[in-house]
């Protein structure tokens, strides 16, 4: 089975754990690639590659300042992910409701034993 291009889809782009690590660091604000690479313990070309992929799917923006390029998070690109995961909210709410009912039953059974 052929792999989908990582640059065409936000889901594929964030499937790579190091890209998610980069996004987590960028939540705190803009950073140059050298800082990102150092903090993540990866070579700068590798960090640049991941940043290029993230930029192509709209998750990262870049601005130049002198000789440096600063990368920042563009969370608007996460909207498809947010909308997709939001579809599971009903599942989790129902699961927590069943768990709450189970715990209440256990408490009542314990009180009946005392």
What does this structure look like?
It is a single chain. This protein has helices at 10-15, 17-26, 33-40, 44-56, 79-86, 89-113; strands spanning 31-32, 60-65, 68-73. With 114 residues, it is an alpha+beta fold. A three-stranded antiparallel beta sheet has the order 1-3-2. Strand 2 and strand 3 (68-73) form a beta hairpin.
| Strand portion | 5-15%
Count of β-strands: 3
Query: Treating each run of at least 4 consecutive H or I residues as one helix, how many helices?
Result: 6
- Report how far apart the termini are: 60 Å
What structural category characterises the helix and strand content?
A: alpha+beta
**What value does the Rg take, in angstroms?**
21 Å
Based on Cα principal axes, name the global outline: elongated
Low-confidence stretches: none
Spatial order of the strands forming the largest sheet? 1-3-2
> What average pLDDT do the residues reach?
91
| Biggest beta sheet attributes | 3 strands, antiparallel
Series of secondary-structure elements, N-terminal to C-terminal? HHEHHEEHH
Name the helicity range: 55-70%
Topology:
Blueprint: H1 10-15, H2 17-26, E1 31-32, H3 33-40, H4 44-56, E2 60-65, E3 68-73, H5 79-86, H6 89-113
What can be said about this structure in brief?
The protein is built from 6 helices and 3 strands.
Index terms:
114 residues; alpha+beta; 3-stranded antiparallel β-sheet; 6 helices; elongated
């Amino acid at each position: 089975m052929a792999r989908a291009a990582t640059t065409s889809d936000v889901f594929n782009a964030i499937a790579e754990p190091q890209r998610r690590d980069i996004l987590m660091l960028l939540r705190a604000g803009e950073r140059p690639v050298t800082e990102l690479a150092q903090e993540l313990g990866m070579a700068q070309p590798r960090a640049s590659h991941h940043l290029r992929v993230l930029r192509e799917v709209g998750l990262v923006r870049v601005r130049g300042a002198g000789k440096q390029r600063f990368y920042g998070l563009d969370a608007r690109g996460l909207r498809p992910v947010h909308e997709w995961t939001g579809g599971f909210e009903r599942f989790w709410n129902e699961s927590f409701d069943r768990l709450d009912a189970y715990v209440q039953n256990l408490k009542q059974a314990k009180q009946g034993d005392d």
